[in-house]
User: Which sequence fits this backbone?
């Protein structure tokens, strides 16, 4: 297969911008130039790579080509930075997936020192979808509970986040006067992040309570989730890294659940990606649990 | 059309739980009883109401039936609460859509006093999808920038959130030594919430800068977004309600954008829904802008 860099760049920019017009503006060419390059790339690969919806959708055949396009773009940006350091190059964009609680606690301060040279395109995803994003080439790296390497990726263990069932002291007194008994857990409201969050469900099952029985609040944002527990909406599984200064009561000393996080990234020697990986691993050593 | 309450309840519970098994556990019946009721409801309406995927998907024909099921469930829960107040009824679940910045600032404290009687199923959605959720019957109310009433809904104006272009004082000195000129805005990194967030793009266009040009960080969670601006990732449009105590610098006194929020809810006399609407309107009077 003959590779044309301008064609690959058109694919990358179109997926990033979501539209051919956006890609044209980003690359300072006309929309018809983008369209021609995409058609030529589809002719060269013999496959339909994009569905021209709004935003465009990458087809299954388009995934390896998009991944290739982004790998090439990253390596080219690294090389040009090395050839002419500090000449005010446009920062390279790194799409990274991460779980909501990591983004809300320890990841942003770790990435901040690199934010002048790298544009961080952060995607919030649960574990299941993160593997798909890596496979599809939509993200280059991920902080994820998925320990199995996605094909083409390396994986490093970062450390754990320990979730414990917590509530305000007033909530604990009102709903659990005799501790976390099964009848009390079946009646007390719980706060759940979203439909894919199994932490509260898992704890309830471990105590013999069907998770379909208690009333559930759904609060699908990480900081807001802890705010809801702190405001007394219900009990919830809260990691040490997110305990509010005011203090929540731990409901059950045997109720902790450890979620082990991993760094997965494309198998690729890239200075930019290596620097981000170093920053994330250093912060993880400090902020995550290493039992 | 002959209505069967048990059948409507099966539809509601299946969509809420996402699976027939989950609905069966929630209603304390067998999965085959759920399956029979759904088939009977589909026979009575002459339509396929659900796609049996995981989670189940409501078809277009299923939307008005789901909406009806939830309206009936809400009215029945209200009535039973009125007949036997305080007898420890299972709280009624209210699915509500809201924009991320409202959830992160003024809405949760307003809902907290009701969280013992009402289970809040909060959905984060941008304006466009919120109207769809109301129409489909997936949410009963919404805090949304959409001013046009969705068919079957009432709409009340809540007040405004005023977004201003802000950054840390260090960021402003480094990237905008001569103020927010077009060349400086074309080079300075900006923080954007997600692909549907047009606030930064709108400001850039108003200053003659193509939004495809500057480097963009994407940080898709409301509190984390402000954290990223505070950590110096880039400049961003920040509402007064979210300004951090440490203080950010306002970049452009003429750059404010007002987003006017509305409360949309199903046209339905329900005690529970009315109490939530009252709490939201009272908090909005206090926390939103009323120029």
Assistant:
């Amino acid at each position: 297969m003959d590779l044309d860099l301008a064609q690959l760049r058109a694919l990358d920019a179109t997926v990033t911008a979501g539209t051919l017009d956006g890609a044209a503006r980003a690359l300072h060419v006309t929309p018809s130039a983008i369209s021609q390059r995409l058609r030529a790339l589809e002719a060269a690969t013999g496959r339909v790579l994009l569905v021209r919806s709004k935003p465009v959708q990458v087809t299954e055949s388009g995934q390896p080509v998009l991944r290739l396009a982004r790998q090439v773009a990253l390596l080219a940006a690294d090389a040009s930075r090395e050839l002419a350091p500090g000449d005010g190059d446009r920062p390279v964009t790194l799409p990274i997936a991460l779980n909501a609680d990591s983004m809300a606690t320890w990841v942003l301060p770790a990435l901040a020192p690199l934010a002048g040279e790298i544009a961080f395109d952060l995607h919030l995803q649960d574990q299941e979808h993160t593997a798909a994003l890596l496979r599809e080439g939509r993200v280059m790296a991920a902080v994820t509970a998925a320990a199995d390497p996605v094909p083409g990726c390396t994986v490093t263990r970062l450390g754990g986040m320990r979730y414990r069932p917590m509530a305000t002291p007033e909530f604990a007194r009102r709903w659990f006067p005799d501790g976390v008994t099964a009848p009390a857990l079946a009646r007390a409201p719980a706060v759940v992040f979203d439909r894919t969050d199994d932490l509260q469900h898992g704890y309830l099952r471990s105590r013999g309570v069907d998770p379909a029985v208690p009333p559930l609040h759904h609060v699908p944002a990480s900081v807001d989730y802890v705010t809801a527990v702190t405001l007394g909406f219900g009990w919830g599984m809260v990691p040490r890294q997110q305990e509010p200064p005011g203090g929540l009561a731990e409901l059950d000393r045997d109720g902790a659940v450890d979620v082990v996080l991993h760094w997965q990234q494309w198998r690729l020697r890239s200075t930019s990606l290596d620097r981000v990986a170093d920053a994330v691993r250093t912060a993880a050593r400090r902020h995550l649990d290493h039992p």
